[in-house]
Specification:
single chain, 245 residues, alpha+beta, Peptide Methionine Sulfoxide Reductase, Chain A, two-stranded antiparallel sheet, 33% helix, 15% strand, disordered N terminus, Met_Sox_Rdtase_MsrA_sf
Length: 245
Amino acid sequence: MKKTRNSAPPAAPGRRTACLRLAGAGLLAMAGWLAIQPAGRAADAVFEIPPPARDVPAAGGMATAVLAGGCFWGVQAVFQHVEGVREALSGYAGGSAATADYETVSGGRSGHAEAVRITYDPARVSYGKLLQIYFSVVHDPTQRNRQGPDVGPQYRSAIFPADAAQRQVAEAYIAQLDRSGAYPGPLATTIETLQGFYPAEDYHQDYLARHPDSPYIIVNDQPKVDNLARAYSAYYRARPALVRP
């Protein structure tokens, strides 16, 4: 399902654009639209989960993590508010450079997921803490190939480790969370080889900060940032680390 976007190319003909219709109809239509959405975790809910039992040891310099969990607008927005994150860049991971554009990825057959590359300081926030935030407030990891109103493999829950250490921590944490009983079902999160990360178009960057009044943002993404502030106050910063300050 294609998302509403401001100042962006028009939706491709024939695509389902429920969010586009939602924005056009305004907030009054939002309640009716939400009522017909499939069951799943509410956007304003938080999974209360333990931190990972193992973590990547802190090392000097900056590190990167690539995570996918539905629409990259919300994923980016949450991590932009995490202390220790220098940049959270929306983009595509899982496919080739030839198919790394929004129109192609939206078709669901590019191999890509909408993903976010997080550049962070391991001395201030660990890889494990990023994963805890990812699994508790960023998205519902039990949903397979969907998040909220967005449906398709491009919205899958996926981790793209940068190295063997990240892969081992991610694998161990998924197993730990599946055993924890914190979720209504098994996690659908996949761990995939990072073949490349391709930045998304400029109009996707800093989307929540630039379009806070978008109905899609109000319903699906702003609650995640609010949850970060409540559940991880020690790691929350009010001023986001924008791509285009």
